[in-house]
Amino acid sequence: MPYLGSEETVKELRRALSNPNVQSDQLRYRNIVLKVIRAMSQGVDVSSLFSEMVKACATVDIVQKKLVYVFLCSYATVNPELSLLVINTLRKDCQDPNPMVRSLALRNMTNLRLPSLVEYVEQPLMTGLRDRAACVRRVAVLGWAKLYNLQTRSEIDASVVNELYNLLRDPDPVVMVNCLRALEEILKEEGGVAINKPITHHLLNRLKECDIWGQCEVLRILQRHRPQSEDELFDILSLLDVSLVSPHPPVMAATLSLFLGLSSGLPAVSKAAIERVRGPLLAICGSASREMRFAAICHIQLLLCSIPGLMGAHYKRFFCGYAEPSYIKQRKMKVLVELVNDENVAMVLDELKGYCTDVNTDTAQAAITAIGRIGRSYSDKCLEILTGLLGLKQEHIISAVMQTMCDLVWVCPQCSETVCVAVEGCEEMLLDSQGRQALLWLLGMYGEFVSSAPYTLETFIDGVRSEASLGVKMELLTATMRIFLCRPAETQDMLGRLLHYCIEEETNMCVHDQALLYYRLLHCGIEETRKVLQGRRSDPSLGVLIGRPAEPISQWASSFNTLGPLKQNNVEMESTSRKTPELVTFEPKSNTDLRDTLTCEPEENFHSGSDRTTEKTDSCTPVLPSSPGLPLTLSLSPALSPEEFEHMWLEQQPPQSEQGDGMSKEEDYLCLEECLRCPNIFDCSPKSLQAAMQLVNIQMLAFTPPNTLPWRVYLYTHTQQSNSVADTPHSSSVRDVQHTLILGELQYSGKGNKKHAIKGSISDGEVVTKDWDDEREEEEEKVVAYGLRTDRTQDEVKVTLKQHPKDEQVLKGFISILRTLLHTLSSEGV
Amino acid sequence: MISQLFILSSKGDHLIYKDFRGEAGNDVINVFYEKVTALPGDQPPVVMVTHRDLHFVHVRQGGLYWVATTTSAGSSPFTIIDFLNRLAALVTDYCGSLSEKSVQMNFALIYELLDEVVDYGYIQTTSSDVLKNFIQTEAVSSRPFSLFDLSNVGLFGAETQQSKVAPSSAATRPIQSSRDQKAELLRWTLRELFSPSVLELTVSCSSVTEMRIGLNEEFSIGRSTLRGYGAAVHVDECRFHQAVKLDEFDDHRILKLCPSQGEQTVMQYQLSDNLPSPPPFRLFPTIERDNRGRLLIYMKLRCDLPPKSAAINVSVSVPVPKGCVSLSQELSSPEQRCELKPQSRSLVWTVPRCSGGTQLSAVFKLDVPGLSSASMLEVGPVGLTFELPKLTSTGLQIRFLRLTPVQPGPSQRWVRYVTHSDSYIIRV
């Protein structure tokens, strides 16, 4: 900060500080020191006063001492030599009869942050640990942590560590907690302070003496404790039950975090704990501090991932307040979307409708998106609201409505009629680029039902020269091509103009290349073009996702009570990016979301075995294979953890020599490799694949993100084959029934051009350098790159199955189930 | 774990800066301020700087930014936010009031506080009882000279009625260190909001060992329990400060506590659905277009409070269509005001006082160029803010307030009831 006359000020202060008259008058002296500190905090560089301030340190006035220390600690690193002068005063103060002076000196001695002073500090720190005043011990304990971090990579004396461990039994609770903190830092490389059973119990017993900050610290450190027996676990949990409903948010959150950590193997316990914090969490949602409210809402979002019904009855608590800041409003709307059910849908929609006209455009758009999300389940009511909003004729609202409608028709094709009518009226409205893209996509997809579509496009084409957005241009090309296919007479001329402009004049490579691609595609004939361009209009399989399966608690437990859930866009309740590949291609931002969600999914599936299958243990679905055979039942219990899976999979690695469609038999397991033809399976979203598999009780454990090669899915199931047909699945313990475990891998390693990739972002800066000679291949690649579908016939998935114990009959039955499943899925996709 | 802590004014001036761990330089203050003011409106309390893995957690109190930085993403947001709020409360308790000026004047005191409260980024204590032994600096009061102070002085020094009433500024008296005891002072505020309500207590005395607070006998919590025969005071959920002893609560509805200095929330309760009394305000709006293309809004505001009580500082905010250029109004009394606020796209009608059973009416004429029928939809939900002194919507009362041991010196105590509208919205 520029400060007028700072030179002058410093000079004047120096003169005053060295004036003996001032020095003899305590009050005046203190005031001058105060002025120095004030200048310092205003940003004036007063480091040149260091030696004068060192002198001012030797005083009996504690207030002045404190002020000088504030100064010294800020400037010590600039003046390491002069700082040596202070050490003497500080060491003398460490022997002062007043404990306050002792603790003050000790604290500031360690705050100087000068490695050269370490040798002078160690001895007073050691005595400080045994001081009779608790406030000195508190400072001394943390002092060791500071010292350790100051001397990089130096060994700290083992006796100090021992001393600190002993001080865990100090009568003062703050000293105890500080010991924990210090040991955590000093023993960082060994994984922190050792938490064994006696220490745990000692800490738990003394938890009540600590204030809330201490309690949080102890609870956090206890997360590392692993109880040996279930009894011990439940002892700890019942001891902590009181803190779970503590009126202090930090304590409540830390306790729940500990609960979730300890009972990770017992989903029922975690669930009960979450139910118990519902009250306190809702209370925080109404607390006076809005930042606190925000934190609570973000964490509720997290809890709802696993227990969607948690807040159902309390949906009114998430209605937005009039004066609330927009960040709270937007989060609340995301929660509201999750809480909608048949009874409250009218109320919630009515409320959300009110937010659509919010002054803050982000809030208004979030409200519209929320209505669109609800529209997936209650499309009629939501469409009515959305079309009503178009009447407001405001740019940001219409843009958001267009984008929402795009998403909505992709999931619910039955909405298309209403949407087509709505699109009809709003072409003359000015929209932002996102809104224009969405409008163009809708026109392209549903051009035959929108009578004015070609004329709308024409205005866009006329203005293409002044169009700045790359995405809009790309979308315009595709939309015009699509309309050309269904209404050639009206479109031919403008398509010609557009292609001409894009190929001859456009400077952007992406647009240019795409126009070129379409141009050549048209040369190949109308049928070919149709095959490439007319993809699906909607993805009803996403409908499965509406009743989103509850995520296992363990998936987010580690991020509970961290800053993670508060980060922006971290917890996306759903990823809007899973719409059309075409749209994804043009939205780099949402595409990164896509990748994020997908890469984190394998983890989800790793854990899902333990949680989800427990519910299904007694509901084995009998599945009759299509091939003649014995009735075969698949079940998911007992659950298999990913580690176990990996272990068994590697153990049963088939010898290299055996390849192809051969069966290898060794000891008591069977390995089989077969190729199944299912052309479109890669287009399925992993979630719909998983949902389909779960219908027949096959558990997917892990899969690669869809746009990587080789594409792999790992799965397992247990089979039960009963010899007597009348057997119910529940009598599985009868000896007639044979159990086998099947582990499987689906692999697809098509090289490059075989992949229907959902290609990642194409950034403006990406220069596509092409070998112009090889046109065909390039076109092929482009088809891939822009996510358009082509028909492929030779796509095959390699299935590797491992069975234990072996039973050929059953394995064949399983393969036929798998084949049926994959075929059903891929034919749905076409 | 807190790495640095700083307080910024709303204009970005550095008021207080303290580095606890030396992990990042003080240039992060400017980075934070740029980030937080980059977009209009308030920013969520957690802001990231990705390249340095530094997280800023901030709260806004008294128009200031209270910011803590931390390097570990695993820090508990609840702890840091709660701590920052607590720190702001401590500063308020020590400095008397919370503003840019009071922080500037008391910076030495705040540095001293910070030194005791946080060591090496770890929170040590925030209890004012513990802290008062360590804090040596005297607070500098920033209250300007005011004519209102003179009103307590009667004519020719005679004692007036007013001088017996505790001044309203009593609440903003800073905490005294234990050395000089002045008049004992207790302030009670029963502050009710329409959703969660709190019972707040400010204690400025230092020698109270125990305090007994009697609530209504008919006070009941939850649905099942009914007490007494009269109109029951009913709340759905209730939680108490941890220092409150509840052994006499079940039988006599008495709370016992040993208060520490400073302001604290003794009890927090909430009603979920049915209010015991009718909502204090009803609004009857009519929206029309006149033949000259202007938008006419007729508003009738009826106050349904009991005739003896009144609402003060009533402010009605009505969203108006975008592009509204001018406003003319007809109000029913001269002390009312109306203003058009273009940046929040609303008109604000303020009524200083509105007593129970009365009805106010107003006509607003808005000039909106290009008014269409759709614009009428933009006249959205009306928000009201108001204050109801001497009234609690639940009917909760304090029967008595006793201190043990009985104070020998002059002891002033008073209880103030007030209901605030937190978010009171009326659909149009």
Automatic annotation (TrEMBL), chain A:
InterPro entries: AP_beta (IPR026739), ARM-like (IPR011989), ARM-type_fold (IPR016024), B-adaptin_app_sub_C (IPR015151), Clathrin/coatomer_adapt-like_N (IPR002553), TBP_dom_sf (IPR012295). Pfam families: Adaptin_N. Keywords: Membrane, Protein transport, Transport. Its main location: membrane. Residues 632-823 form the Beta-adaptin appendage C-terminal subdomain domain. The keyword Ribosomal protein does not apply. It is found in: Endomembrane system. Residues 602-618 have a biased composition (Basic and acidic residues). Gene3D superfamilies: Leucine-rich Repeat Variant (1.25.10.10), TATA-Binding Protein (3.30.310.10). Residues 602-628 are annotated as: Disordered. Belongs to the adaptor complexes large subunit family. PANTHER family: ADAPTOR COMPLEX SUBUNIT BETA FAMILY MEMBER (PTHR11134). This is Adaptor related protein complex 4 subunit beta 1.
Automatic annotation (TrEMBL), chain B:
Belongs to the adaptor complexes medium subunit family. SUPFAM superfamilies: Second domain of Mu2 adaptin subunit (ap50) of ap2 adaptor, SNARE-like. InterPro entries: Adaptor_comp_med_subunit, AP2_Mu_C_sf, AP_mu_sigma_su, Clathrin_mu, Longin-like_dom_sf, MHD. Pfam families: Adap_comp_sub, Clat_adaptor_s. CDD domains: AP4_Mu_N. The keyword Transport applies. GO terms for cellular component: clathrin adaptor complex; clathrin-coated pit; early endosome; Golgi apparatus. One of its GO terms (biological process) is intracellular protein transport. It is found in: Early endosome; Golgi apparatus, trans-Golgi network membrane; Membrane, Coated pit. Keywords: Coated pit, Endosome, Golgi apparatus, Membrane, Protein transport, Transport. It comes from Cynoglossus semilaevis (Tongue sole). It is a peripheral membrane protein. Component of the adaptor protein complex 4 (AP-4). Adaptor protein complexes are vesicle coat components involved both in vesicle formation and cargo selection. They control the vesicular transport of proteins in different trafficking pathways. AP-4 forms a non clathrin-associated coat on vesicles departing the trans-Golgi network (TGN) and may be involved in the targeting of proteins from the trans-Golgi network (TGN) to the endosomal-lysosomal system. The keyword Cytoplasm does not apply. It comes from the Eukaryota. This is AP-4 complex subunit mu-1. Residues 168-427 form the MHD domain.
